[in-house]
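User: Structure please.
Assistant: Input sequence and predicted structure:
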Amino acid sequence: MSFLEFEKPVQELEAKIAELRKVSSTGDVNVAAEISRMQTKADRLLKQIYTKLSPAQKVLVARHPERPHFQDYIQAIVTDFTPLAGDRRFGEDAALIGGIGRIAGRACVVMGQEKGSDTEMRLRHNFGMARPEGYRKALRLMELADRFQIPVVTLVDTAGAYPGVGAEERGQSEAIAACIETCLNVSVPILSVVIGEGGSGGAIAIATADRVYMLEHSIYSVISPEGCASILWRSGAYAAEAAAALRLTAQDLKKLGVIDDIIEEPLGGAHRASLEAVERVQAQIEKGFAETCPWDPRTIRHSRREKYLKIGRAA
């Protein structure tokens, strides 16, 4: 496991524990009591660190490469998943994956950004930064869900929409705006979970939902701290100050009423216990289904409209 800078005290303890376990495996010395004592100390230290994370540190946790990614969730909680490709206009975008499947036995459309877990996958999925065709694919899938009256589940994990010249030439901003409009207009429930990094319009495009949840150490913001710092201070060195000012943590956004609930992560973050984190997300999605299903098309559109007008008034 790769450790973050502020986790170094825990890293040192866990390295010592690993050494003791290696010694214990030889059978010559019984160090079980010492291992137990040190493990308790490491867990206590980890809890102390993670209960006092600064916004800048939460950004690092949200971006941790070993956090479970979209495909990990698909494999663990979605059965009968059938991926659907292409936007029927330009082509396929591997950064945003979507299709039809079942969660807890309920048929639904599932989509989300895939960042990739190794270099080859990151390049293939463009680090989770979708181009216009990715958002037009999302729009197509939402319209499909609306036609067949099945709910939509979106898992958000992106630094933002891809900012390349080709993407702009193909109408990136229009594709995102159309996606948001479709989110607001479909007559089926939309549940969204920010599982890592929820960046800019690239996240909002598929997270304009009836229920928006965030993992405890995920982030959700209109701009990255680095981007904000480069605009306001003309230097990326002020990213930590920008992270605090943006109020991008799940705890801040819950207070502001932007999200509906926070999903608690395992001790030390989702990257330390991926399966447990995925199961907690599934439990929250099932709770969201229970709150929104069955639904009346007119009522759900009206309540969604009021939800976002209320956020606008509060801002």
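The two ends are 40 Å apart (CA to CA).
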